[in-house]
Each structure stands twice: as structure tokens, then as C-alpha cells.
Design brief:
homodimer, Rossmann fold, 10 helices, 14 strands, two-stranded antiparallel ribbon, Rna Polymerase Sigma Factor, Chain: A, alpha/beta, 8-stranded mixed sheet
């Protein structure tokens, strides 16, 4: 449903004029970045906020693309005029990640050297590579220092990476439902999802753009993912053991529990809107994410950074549980960095960052206001 | 590795002479039951214990099939001479479940009416149907009342069902890492596993016994299952983010983390030893399990039963978490039934019932000893 005065936005595209040096060692280009902006940059350039999306997100995080559009951006509850991340106060930038399939160059993009989609010839990318691309976009937008980088899940990983890779270009950081490194359990879930896709004969070694789509494998992968985004409690509340159509058990293999029907729907709708190869590349980038790896300690890694942190986790998130946010907070505290850690009581599991409007909204609005004030003071 | 005096056992087969009335309303037969026994029945028939296996188990729970056999039964750590479930003291029976693929009639068995494997023409079965078959076996063995029914996971569900279906035929019950009803989250994991199998083109609507095997789908299903059997903590301890072969990230999609390699191995070895249709039928039987369903309350359901209970859960089991064992215990306590509830501190997750030798062993041995004594007293 549209708000009373819908925010109308347009996705823009920036072609990075030079190649990017990837973490793998490869040079890669050309890269196009899809992005949107909301609000206006102030004269001191002190109010820029970069929003970083999770696995299945895109550049369109707020508002509508036309007056007839009935589906707002993925974080519209948080971003827009009068919202917690207020486009009346801040200049907000949101871009699709490298390797994605929503306008930024990824495996489904055309390789100009061959005239065909990259498929598996697309290079393996990392969270840090995504951040390098975002940095190029900000240089293009002539923003020397961001007020904040903020994101949930994979977006939170990018936010943390920003602090370490470009400490002078960002004043504060809000990782939500995030982690400083992917756990063995999360790598395991990602690998099973990839196997589900690769096992689909239509996957055809990633070269399926001209043929049938590996929709069954991708649907199974998304169903696995979706279970990890919810919680035992929220699934119990939402579905319990309720049946979908009938009152009695049917004694056949048709979908009968509501939770099964919900998962099927999630799987099917994902197939229509997401590229299977992108899921492979983005999940691999997450697997590779380990902020402490180079330095052998998270504290040492963060010592390169500076700035203010708001770390947020959710009680029922078992994919990136609170202890992982606490590891981040603890390392920052040892360095005596200004850090606020909040665990929000929520039954929604990992997806809570997309759902906990009131609690998360108040937290973000307050942190942004005080951080903006401090940033302004330091600039003067 | 064989113990010093290996227990040599042989799988036996019983052909139930009559059809079974299934919960679905169908009459089904003929049914063959694969079973093993260890130890001897005493003259008062007071020392019989029925062991109930989990999803991938079989009748062979203890000992070896030959002196050259180097793989003991699945619960050999718990069952055998001098073990916690001591075959020097007790007469122990273990059978393969209806719908399985290890000797008891299931979807891979030959339908005598067609001369071909049942496949999807096998009827949908329930946990209660499995128990009906076990009851026939015990009648054949002329055991009027069991000292104990004991099992972990799906085995624990059968144990609970025994108490409700045949209260006069069993004196005590040990459900381990079990639940009185499958949660929405568990149904969700089961459904995704089934979808992985059904999506494999080799599955061929369940009719694959003459053609290529749906091994990719079954491997993905098993990998999903395996993640749920472990815990975040045990995966971290066992694998962490360690790489399998090299020191550095390889920047390709080959298996590189140890946890990936482990899952692949689990998937592959399962494919060699388990029937895909059996996984579908057994997981569906678990989905249907809801002891309270008919009576609308667990307390009411258990009021039909009597006997002594030892309920065991494990701290890190997130598939059938402690709160589910507590729901069972709480209902029994309200009925003032003798019930002992123990939550064992373990990092092994759901699989702890197969691994926590010392703590679980002592608990079982003590409970069996005192319960046996009480049973003997009541008999005299």
C-alpha cells in the first residue's frame, strides 16, 4: 500500500570507468552499478548514508517506481520521508551489490568480450569486492565521508568491511543481525543450497540463460534459506501444525501443512525474481567473509578502523545469533571504540531486521541523530 | 573395531500372518519384519526391552554380523554384554520400522500383487502404524509386557506411542531427544528434503528401481538433515572455518571448507545405503506425529497410559529442543505419573543420543535397574 505521499524514485546506473582489482587477484571490468538515492546531500556533505542490502535485496530500498507501483522498496518501513532513516534529513544511497542480478554487473550480465552472459566465467567475488565497487560509486557522487553505513545480514558484513577497508571515508557503522565471519553451520547451509542448484540438470554448469531455468534446484535452495531466516517460535506462531485446505490428514504426499505451502510459495516467487548463478556467487562471498582472517584477531582488524558503532542483534536469530554480534562488540570495546550493542527481543528470527519496525526504527533514528550531531561538531 | 569378545548376531525375519489396519484406514499386508535379539528372556518374562531406531537406523543395533565384520550395530555403545542396556541382564529386541529399507516391508519391497517394488503405491504410514507392527512381533515372541521401550529421535516418538497405544503391554518408557509432535520448523526441513528428492529427474515419480538412482536429490536431502542433527557449536569445534586441502582460499566453487567436504561425504554414503522413497515415507510419518491431536491435549492422551518414564534431552539439540521434552514431562507430572526428566549438557546437538556414552549410559543403566526391580515386585 502506498503512503499518502508516495516517494517516487528511479534506479540510476553508473558505469565505473576503470577495472577493479578483485581480492582473488583478478582485474575485472567493466562494472555497472545500479543505485538509488533519496533526499539531498547538504552543503557540508555530512548527511550521506549508505544502505547495504542482504542476499536477495537490490538498490530499490525505499519508495515506489511509479504512482501505479504497489510494492515499495525492501526497507521502506525504515527509509523515506519521516521514516527512521529520514530522507528529509539525510542523503541516502542504496546500490545493488557486485555479483547480484538487479542491475549491477553479475553472472547474468553480458560479457562484452563474448556477447553472452558470464555464467560461471564470472569471477569469484568477496564482500570486500562489493565494498570496493560501492566506494567507486561514492567517489562518483563526490561524497568524501559517509555519516553511516548500515545494513542487515550480508548488508551488515559489508558495513563492517567498510569500516576496515575505508576507515577515513565513513564516520559510523550499523551492522544489524550480522557477523564478523560466517560460521561452519552457515557455510554448511550455503553449500547445501548451492548443491541443490548445481544438481538441477537445467543448471547446465551455469549456462542456462538460453534454455530451461534450474527452477526446481533454486526453489529448494530458497526454501532452505527461508527456514534459516525464520525461527522455531515464529514458525510455530505463524503456522503451527495447521493444515492448508482440509481438516483431516490426507494420507498422501500433497502439500497439506500450511508451513509447506508457505515454503513452496517462497521458493516459487524467488525463482521468478532471482538469478541462480547470483545466489551461488553471493553465498560464496559470504562463506569467504572472515574479518579477522588476515590479522588473526578481530581486535587487530578493527584497530585499523575508527568511528562509532551501533551493533544490533535479535534474540531468536539462530542464523547469525547474538553471540556473533557480541564478538564484534567485544573486540570494539577492547579497543575503547564508541560502541552501543543492543539485542532486540524478537520472535522473528534473522528476518527481524526487515520486520521489527518500532524497536529497530527508534534505535536507528536516535543513533543517527546523535551521530550526525557529533559528526557536524567534528567537521567544524 | 571389535570388542574383545564380540557379540555375534543375526538378523531374523518374521512374516506377520495377517494384514494390518493402517491409521489411514487401509488394510495392508503382507508385512515382513526384520529384527534382532540380544540376551535371553527370563522365565518371568520381566526383562524384555524394545529398542526403537531413528530415521536412518535398522534392526542391527548391537554387535557384529560376523567375526570379520568391522562395523557394529548403530547403538553398540549402549547395547550388549556389560553395556548400559545389558544383554547379560535383559532380553533386547530391535526391529526395522515399517516403511524402512532394511528388511522390514517398505516402498522398495516387492509388491506381491505386481511383482514390482511398491514405490509410491506403498501406503502412507504413521508412527502408530510402525508400533502396530512391533506389537505383532512381540506377540510372535510371546512377550506380554515389555520392561521398557527406548529410542532416540523418531525412536522416541515410537516409544511414546507405545505407552498410549498399548499401555498394558509396556511398563516403562525412555524417549530420548524426542517430541510429542513435530514442530512447524521440523516439518519445513522434512518438506525441503522431500522436495530435493522429488525434484531429481531420476526420481521418476518414485519408480527408479530399474533405472538411474535419484542420488543427487537424496544427497541434498541428507545434507540438510545432517546439519539439523549437529549443532552450531559442534560444527564450530569440529570444522570451524578450516580449509580441506589448501592453506589459502581457492576462489572457485570447488569444495574447500572441511564442513563442505564432511557434508558431501555424509550425503554420498547415505545414497549408498538408503532408499529415497523410504526417506519420503518416514519423514511424512514424523510430520504426522502429534500425540495430542486426537485428545486435544497431551495430558488427556497420556491419561490412557500408565508406567514409568525417563525423559532425556540435550542442551544443544535444536531439532527437538529441550522445551519439547519438557512439554512431555510436564503433562506426565500433571497426571502424577512417575517421571524423571534429565537434560544432558552436550555440544553434539540432536545426534547426542548416539554419542553421549557416559552420561546417557549411566542414566539408562540406573533407570533400567530400578525399574526392573519395581516391575519384578509388582509381578510377585
Amino acid at each position: 500500500m502506498a503512503t499518502e505521499t508516495p516517494l517516487l524514485v528511479e534506479t540510476q546506473y553508473y558505469n565505473i570507468p576503470e577495472n577493479i582489482q578483485l581480492d582473488s587477484g583478478k582485474e575485472f571490468g567493466p562494472i555497472t552499478v545500479a543505485y538509488e538515492t533519496y533526499g539531498s546531500l547538504n552543503s557540508r556533505k555530512s548527511n550521506a548514508i549508505l544502505i547495504l542490502h542482504a542476499l536477495s535485496g537490490d538498490a530499490h530500498c525505499a519508495g515506489y517506481h511509479s504512482p501505479e507501483d504497489n510494492k515499495p522498496g525492501w526497507w521502506d518501513m525504515m527509509v523515506g520521508p519521516g521514516k527512521p532513516i529520514d530522507s528529509n534529513k539525510y542523503f541516502i544511497i542504496s546500490s545493488n551489490v557486485l555479483g547480484g542480478c538487479k542491475g549491477t554487473t553479475g553472472p547474468s550480465s553480458i560479457n562484452p568480450e563474448t556477447g553472452n552472459p558470464y555464467g560461471l566465467s564470472f569471477p569469484i567475488i568477496t564482500i570486500n569486492d562489493m565494498v570496493k565497487v560501492q566506494k567507486k560509486l561514492l567517489e562518483h557522487l563526490e561524497i568524501p565521508q559517509l555519516l553511516t553505513v548500515v545494513g542487515g545480514s550480508m548488508g551488515g558484513m559489508q558495513a563492517l568491511q567498510w569500516m576496515v577497508s575505508y576507515p577515513d571515508s565513513v564516520y559510523s557503522c550499523i551492522p544489524i543481525a550480522a557477523t564478523s565471519r560466517l560460521s561452519a553451520q552457515s557455510i554448511a547451509f550455503n553449500e547445501v543450497s548451492r548443491q541443490a542448484i548445481i544438481s538441477d540438470p537445467n543448471y547446465n554448469n551455469g549456462d542456462y540463460y538460453d534454455g530451461p531455468y534450474p527452477e526446481k534446484g533454486l526453489a529448494v535452495a530458497r526454501m532452505i534459506g527461508h527456514i534459516t531466516y525464520l525461527s522455531d517460535e515464529s514458525m510455530h506462531q505463524k503456522f503451527g501444525r495447521r493444515l492448508q485446505f482440509q481438516e483431516e490428514l490426507s494420507y498422501n504426499f500433497l502439500t497439506e501443512f500450511q508451513v509447506e505451502s508457505y515454503l513452496h510459495h517462497q521458493g516459487q516467487s524467488f525463482v521468478r525474481r532471482f538469478d541462480a548463478n547470483s545466489l551461488l556467487y553471493l553465498s560464496k562471498a559470504m562463506d569467504y567473509f572472515d574479518l579477522a582472517a588476515g590479522a588473526n584477531s578481530l581486535e587487530k582488524t578493527f584497530s585499523r578502523s575508527n568511528g562509532h558503532y551501533l551493533v544490533v542483534s535479535f534474540t531468536s536469530d539462530w542464523l547469525f545469533p547474538t553471540y556473533q554480534s557480541w564478538e564484534i562488540t567485544s573486540a570494539l570495546q577492547k579497543l575503547r571504540f564508541p560502541v552501543t550493542f543492543t539485542e532486540i527481543d524478537s520472535q522473528y528470527g534473522h528476518d527481524a531486521f526487515l520486520l521489527e519496525k518500532e524497536q529497530l526504527g527508534a534505535l536507528l533514528a536516535n543513533f543517527l541523530e546523535s551521530t550526525h550531531q557529533q559528526f557536524e561538531e567534528e567537521l567544524s
